[in-house]
Write a structure and sequence with these properties.
Blueprint: H1 7-22, H2 26-38, H3 40-62, H4 65-71, H5 73-95, H6 113-125, H7 128-137, H8 149-182, H9 186-208, H10 216-220
Helix pairs in contact: 1-8, 2-3, 2-6, 2-8, 2-9, 3-6, 3-7, 3-8, 4-5, 4-7, 5-6, 5-9
Amino acid sequence: MNILPPSRELFLFIAAALVLLITPGPSVLYIVARSIDRGRKAGLASCIGIYTGGLVHVMAATCGLSALLVSSAVAYSFVKYAGAIYLIYLGINKLREDSIPDDEIEQVPPRSLRHVYTQGVLVQVFNPKTAIFFLAFLPQFVNPARGNVSLQFLTLGLIVTLLALITDSLWAMTAGSAAGWLQRNKTFLRNEKYVSGTVYIGLGLITAASGSKHHVLGTSRSAH
């Protein structure tokens, strides 16, 4: 039993997945905002959180829950709006942070990486477009003639999430490197909460206003 597609199809699968993953979507924008906000370590913690949340979607898709999410307007709406509310909540919390006095800028304690990781997990778990992405993309490379369909689905889903972890980490490292310079700029430190908070709220509003669940293929490109 060969659970992977033939070499040519596997190459096409990986190439297509990479094209979709490097296209900035809610998860990438969240990671970039986190990296600029708190540096590379926080950005990478967000990546791992997003990766963990992606695994939840992979398992759900493998068990058939993704099909339920797409077929049920109630389930889709619940997950979509829960995710939107959470992102807006993060943004409002950020905007409500006290401004940092100049003489205390060097003493700002870093956020708990565990906290950042948990936020990343929740952001990805409550992103219904990720579930739709897996449902729309993976079945194109699953062939019942190769054996256990669930195992094929699981394997391909794990490949996609691993690729996502790699590409997201590159985004985090790049944005985190820029953050190193920005965080030495006191003007930026006094005002960065407005940038990060606006990004989080914007992502929440975009999620809330996203298209109908029937636009499955159309959402695939922006799922990540």
